[in-house]
Amino acid sequence: MRDTRGFTLIELMVAISILGILASIALPRYSYLRQRAYVTAMQSDLRNLMTAQEGYFSSNGDYAGAVTSGPEVPGTGGSGSVSHAFSEGVVLVRMRYRSNARRGSGWNAVVRHTKVRDRTTDRCGIFMGFTGFSPNRAVTQPGVMACW
Description:
By secondary structure, this protein is α+β, with helices and mostly antiparallel strands. The chain has one domain (9-147). The chain is built from one helix and six strands. The chain has a four-stranded antiparallel β-sheet with strand order 3-4-5-6, covered by helices on one side. The N and C termini lie far apart (69 Å).
């Protein structure tokens, strides 16, 4: 009589094949969800920056022209700095104070995430003020961010 305990080689190969198929389905989805989380982190940081800029505006009567990780530096005409800390991996590409004699003052900012690989959403931006202050064609309304 043979000992029938354990798995046969065929049963083991079938189980490994099923696991391989499941992994090939799950890994691309996991990568997609991870990229979406990075984009969400960029958008969250832009919202927080906008909130900090509006608080700065209410205190100083003008927008800041720079970002600092330390205490806020008061100033007008873009000479001040707003205090803001970005999430891990989120990098401020640029932030500009904008001013127009007829349209008033405003600002725009662009961020990117070091781990985003999709070229269609690797940068996000926002602006406040006149529509001409937009950092990119994709950003069409003040206070509403967009990614490109």
